[in-house]
Amino acid sequence: MSLLKTEGILVLVGFPGEIRLPPASLILGSKTICGSVTGGTEDIKEMLEYSAANKVYPNIEVIPITYINDALERLVQRDVKYRFVIDIQNSLH
């Protein structure tokens, strides 16, 4: 937590066995911990198959690779409504 800047956010992806930290490390500096539980490869494959079969699609913002610095700045400013997806194929032309 000491590596996070003031109002920093630590995002945990997956399911860690245990996390130990002093409560003051969150309060001092207004730091946040959040996370997302993701399954293994089979779970993800099942989810993608279900989504495709039921026409459940994510809301995304497709960006060219040349926009990456602007996208990162928008992340810092918390000006992001959808997940960014970099269009690598068209960015290479």
Automatic annotation (TrEMBL):
Chaperone in keyword set: no
Key words of the record: Metal-binding, Oxidoreductase, Zinc
UniProt-listed SUPFAM superfamilies: NAD(P)-binding Rossmann-fold domains (SSF51735)
UniProt keyword Membrane, yes or no: no
PANTHER family recorded: ALDEHYDE REDUCTASE
Protein name: Cinnamyl alcohol dehydrogenase 1
